[in-house]
Design goal:
Layout: H1 2-8, E1 12-13, H2 14-25, H3 32-41, E2 46-50, E3 53-57, H4 60-96, H5 103-128, H6 134-169, H7 173-180
Antiparallel strand pairs: 1-3, 2-3
């Protein structure tokens, strides 16, 4: 469809393009509007509304300028990437200085590996004795205290419901306990 604009170098209305495109380029008339809209969306064809009509145009010079701009953009990105690559190569070369494979370096690497292994073993041993840590023990006490308070609160709720059921329905306490599966020794936690 771009060839229609480039060959004629003219401005068209939609109805004109819908007539020309099927004849000259073999584009189905049903898809002309969609193709034209996609070209407008891509910025390849310009459009403007003048009065009640929409006019469409595209000149070869615009496409040429767009390609030149894209080419310049890509060339600048390429130059920038090349500079980054050179900088990284120099950085690699600098970091290799002082890291030559020597016997002293190999010994230091071995020592570092041994120290890291020792650190892991020490950490594992500390984790074994973690449950004896005063902070951990205190945290466990606080957690137990909260759990105990919650259990006693629910126990109080159960006793309240049992009392209400006895008053409201006249049930015996043993019958309520049996019906709801409440054990005989059910009581507050001390």
């Amino acid at each position: 469809m771009m060839e229609i604009f480039f060959e004629t170098k003219d401005v068209f209305q939609l109805k004109d393009i819908e007539k020309i495109a099927p004849k000259e380029k073999g584009i189905t008339s049903m898809s002309v509007k969609e193709i034209l809209q996609s070209l407008v969306d891509d910025g390849m064809v310009d459009t403007d509304r003048i009065g009640t009509s929409n006019y469409f145009w595209a000149f070869p010079s615009k496409a040429l300028h767009a390609r030149k701009r894209k080419m310049e953009e890509l060339e600048s990105q390429f130059a920038e990437s090349s500079q980054k690559k050179e900088a990284l190569q120099k950085s690699i070369e600098k970091s290799k200085i002082g890291r030559e494979d020597t016997a002293e370096r190999a010994a230091l690497i071995e020592e570092l590996a041994a120290l890291r292994q020792k650190k892991r073993a020490t950490k594992a041993e500390i984790d074994k004795y973690r449950e004896c840590d005063p902070d951990v023990v205190e945290e466990m006490r606080q957690t137990n205290k909260v759990a105990k308070e919650a259990a006693n609160r629910w126990t109080d709720n159960i006793f309240s419901i049992k009392s209400w059921a006895k008053r409201k329905f006249g049930f015996e306490e043993s019958r309520i306990d049996k019906s709801f599966g409440i054990p005989e020794d059910f009581d507050y936690i001390d």
